[in-house]
Design a protein that fits this description.
By secondary structure, this protein is an alpha/beta fold. Helix content is 43%, strand content 17%. It has two domains: 3-192 and 378-390, Rossmann fold (3-Layer(aba) Sandwich); 197-376, Glycogen Phosphorylase B (Rossmann fold). Strand 3 and strand 4 form a beta hairpin. It is globular, with a radius of gyration of 21 Å.
Amino acid sequence: MEKKILYVGFNGFPAGLAQVQRQKLIAKGLVHHGYQVTVLNRYGVHNSNSNIPAAGTVEGIDYLYASKTALRENSFLKRNFLKIKGLFGEIAFCFKFFRNSRKNSAIIITTNNFHNVIIYAMLAKLAGVPSILDNVEHFSSVTRKKSLGKSINDKLYDKLGFRLVSKVICISDFLLNIAKQSKPDSLVLKIPAIVDFSEFELPIVKDDKHYFLYCGTLSYKEVIVFIIEAFEKLAGSQQFYLYLVCSGGNDKDLNTIKDRISTSKKAELIQFHTALPYEQLVNLYMNSKALLIPLRHTNQDKARFPHKIGEYSASSSAIISTNTGEMKSYFSDNLNALLCDNYNSSEFSGKMAYVADNPEIAETIGKNGRLLGEEEFDYLRLTGKISAFIANNSPGS
């Protein structure tokens, strides 16, 4: 009998941001472990320039847009019609998918909408398979401005979401401890940042410039401003550049960052990029003297585990971050990363200066970070744990 996984809740596969990349690697790993995996998107989100078909296979992973299109319609009426069509399409596909394959099968849910957790948990129960919620953030701790509806959604998700599903996968100890308040240890599993290290074994195209690099979403604009401030405090005779590779966000976020760069005393040393091809981004990682990911001492940052940390470790470049959350759980200062005790731009700048003044030590720290990543973040090892978790065996150590 086939083992099947239906991955639901987050539209955009096979393209997209960090959450889609996590989906892709978990799905790819489960295919390696003998599962038939389908990522089911409810409705299209891609613009008219996209050539993504409504159904296909990527790296052994089947995907389907239940609304029959991967594109986002401009018309409000058409968009909402496709959402309804997609919902009924999901329900019909689910029952067909699991018709003869319920043993060692499951629905994995990845969503930030509480109502979708309800829908998919009910759908899994009706289909006779367990529902597994993959939780990557403590949504009610996110400080960005929200509508009243979004605030209510986030509180319900964080308070009740774990209770509605059969099992829970969490990205951090912070979220794992919350899940354990309503689930026994056997029904919860921690899966941190997840990486395919083979994608970081490409030949490097050398860059003669010395630079630090940050990669992340524009919605964390206050973190990007923090990095610019730290870079401005960097002194020394050797010239370093700051590369900022940013995605997501909105026009207001984009303009905020561009304005801040334009007024910087080091504006000529700051390069801002968006929407780089992944191979080019990997090359930038691997040429960087250090990769930047400052985390704040907030519940939001303690709960999350940025996908970029896993990718950073795979690049063998030194990571500069803060000794909090999941960085504290995995990394050690001056061994496999450079960690600030405080979220302070002067302290962060000091770590950047240390890299500039001690390139050989920084290189060793980067290599140690790669060794840690191979041990802790490799997608095949982690999806082996998920496979055992689905089959109700011990997820292993």
